[in-house]
Write a structure and sequence with these properties.
This protein is mainly β and 559 residues long. The protein is built from two helices and 48 strands. The N terminus is likely disordered.
Length: 559
């Protein structure tokens, strides 16, 4: 967006003498050596190298006077510490820390003094001539000066005052070469020179209690214990013409119409405008333009989002976009408009299904325990997708259950599960499987505790143990009355028959189906067949007694 800016030059004061003639122009100050000084808090700069310059005119050049002091926990001082009024310099962090001139210059005469450190040497100039130098190492150990800049007194501002006139003080954070020093010491600067951090020409004039920093850095000096009506004086230095010099620093977008009536569309640092008698002192005021013309900035806002994005234009985008733009008035770093183009990549969250089959219950990743089938629960994993978006997981859970209940009818135990696999077990023998009893119906032949292991749909569960305590000898006999005793036994037991008479085969097997005894015997009424299992391990055995047409199985416990 093109803007036209008009610079207003404010508060230009015209001073006239009582006889209506142009007043004398002022460009220096006089300090009384008693309590006068000037001070500014000063900004923070780095002084790896530096230059201090000043025009001074002293009535005595007394020892221990301070002319320029920068101080925090580090310092740079240009003063008269030495006996006989010689100039001394001090800069903490340097080795040597100070150098001195061999003598002081003539009193009551304007002299140009410069103190330079170029990183390898300290150099002191008087009127453009080197009067002292020394190879030097180190750097000023602080870049901040909380005591600020003091002119005409010690940095503490309460002692070492100087009876001296000052004009054209310059502070640089670069080392000026001999050619640069001699080339500019007798002429005014614009204030925009590279490395110039403070520049005072003392042209504010009578009535002013401040001295303007012409660099635009804001290091304005304040006069203390001075009379603004009498301490401003004229200067006979080459730079002391008394006219006010200022720089109008401007930054604009596209164009600027300046106080000279011209419209500038490109940066310019040479144009000047003169206000005749416009300085506070009554001298002319010359304004130099320092203009930077900027254009609107352009930038791309590259974004990636999951599913949707609400951008700074207020719109919500659900698909990738590289054409949308938004203008931020004055949004660029230089104050011009900032045109932002959107470069948006939209990716979608990942959708997954977790298909599971479990028995009875299942605790899922959401921390919930499900006891029934579920296909509606979801769980979000922030950033869990490979594209960085959320991963949305849908549960598809099938819960299978097993009916592990048993119905008891006399000596008959029936599993209530239909269409399952069954294995009846002996609870009293550590839930050992009863060989051959894999049907839904189980008939107990011995007193004891029995359960069934039911398996179906990949699940398995064991019923509660059921106690059978009503098995009698009659329950164990065939209709022809065969039985065994004692049971339990320690090894030897008898097989008897009440009415049956004939040959029978007797097999004894353990619960794994291993045959441990086999014999053919004649069994008759009121007769016994003796069997000895003393050499067999303790446990549960199945005794099978069979003839040509029937098989009778009985449970035997050896202990």
């Amino acid at each position: 967006m093109k803007r036209k800016l008009f610079t207003a030059f404010i508060a230009l004061t015209f001073v006239f003498a009582m006889n209506d003639t142009k007043a004398q122009c002022y460009s220096a100050v006089q300090l009384d050596g008693t309590d006068d000084y000037m001070h500014t808090p000063f900004a923070t700069y780095t002084f790896n190298t530096f230059t201090m310059e000043m025009w001074i005119n002293s009535a005595n050049y007394n020892p221990n006077e301070h002319y320029i002091s920068l101080y925090e926990n580090a310092y740079i001082v240009l003063g008269g510490w030495g006996g006989g009024g010689v100039f001394d310099t001090w800069a903490s962090g340097l080795s040597p820390v100070a150098i001195s001139s061999p003598s002081s210059p003539a009193i009551n005469t304007w002299h140009h003094i410069a103190f330079v450190y170029d990183g390898t040497s300290q150099i002191l100039y008087v009127d453009g001539v080197v009067v002292a130098s020394a190879p030097t190492t180190g750097a000023v150990s602080s870049s901040g000066f909380t005591q600020g800049l003091v002119i005409g007194a010690r940095y503490t501002q309460v002692t070492q005052f100087t009876n001296t006139k000052f004009d054209d003080v310059r502070i640089w954070n670069v080392a000026r070469t001999p050619a640069e020093l001699t080339g500019s010491m007798s002429s005014n600067l614009t204030g925009t020179e590279s490395g110039l951090v403070a520049y005072y020409r003392f042209e504010d004039g009578p009535g002013s209690s401040t001295v303007t920093d012409l660099t635009g850095n804001g290091n304005t000096l304040t006069l203390y214990n001075m009379d603004p009506a009498t301490d401003w004086i004229s200067s006979t230095t080459p730079v002391g013409n008394g006219s006010a010099q200022s720089v109008d620093v401007q930054a604009t977008c596209d164009s600027l119409t300046w106080i000279d009536g011209n419209t500038y569309t490109a940066s310019d640092s040479t144009a000047t405008f003169v206000y005749v008698g416009g300085a506070a002192s009554g001298c002319d005021s010359t304004v130099t333009l320092n203009l930077t013309v900027n254009s609107a900035s352009a930038s791309v806002d590259a974004l990636a989002a999951c599913d949707s994005l609400t951008w700074l234009d207020g719109n919500t985008y659900t698909a990738s976009n590289s054409t949308a733009t938004y203008s931020v008035p004055g949004g660029s770093a230089v104050g011009c408009d900032s045109i932002v183009t959107l470069n948006l990549t939209i990716t979608n969250s990942q959708q997954l299904t977790d298909t599971l089959v479990a028995c009875d219950t299942y605790t899922w990743i959401d921390g919930n325990t499900y006891t029934a089938s579920n296909n509606s629960a979801t769980y979000s994993v922030p950033g869990g997708a490979t594209n960085g978006c959320d991963s949305i997981i849908h549960l598809d859970l099938t819960i299978n259950t097993v009916d592990n209940t048993v119905t008891t009818s006399g000596l008959d135990l029936t599993s209530n599960a239909v269409g399952a696999q069954y294995q009846w077990v002996d609870c009293d023998s550590s839930y050992a499987a009863i060989v051959g009893d894999t049907n839904q119906l189980f008939t107990a032949t011995f007193n004891g505790n029995y359960a069934v292991v039911v398996s179906m749909n990949g699940c398995s569960d064991t019923s509660a143990c059921v106690a059978i305590t009503t098995v009698s000898l009659a329950d164990l006999n065939w209709t022809n009355g065969i039985g065994i005793y004692p049971n339990p036994t320690t090894g030897e037991f008898s097989i008897s028959s009440e009415v049956y008479s004939g040959e029978v085969t007797i097999n004894v097997v353990d619960l794994s189906g291993k045959l441990v005894y086999n014999a053919t015997e004649n069994l008759g009424p009121n007769t016994n067949v003796e069997v000895d299992l003393s050499n067999s391990s303790n446990g549960v055995y199945i005794v099978r007694i069979s003839n040509e047409s029937e098989v009778h199985s009985m449970r035997l416990i050896k202990k």
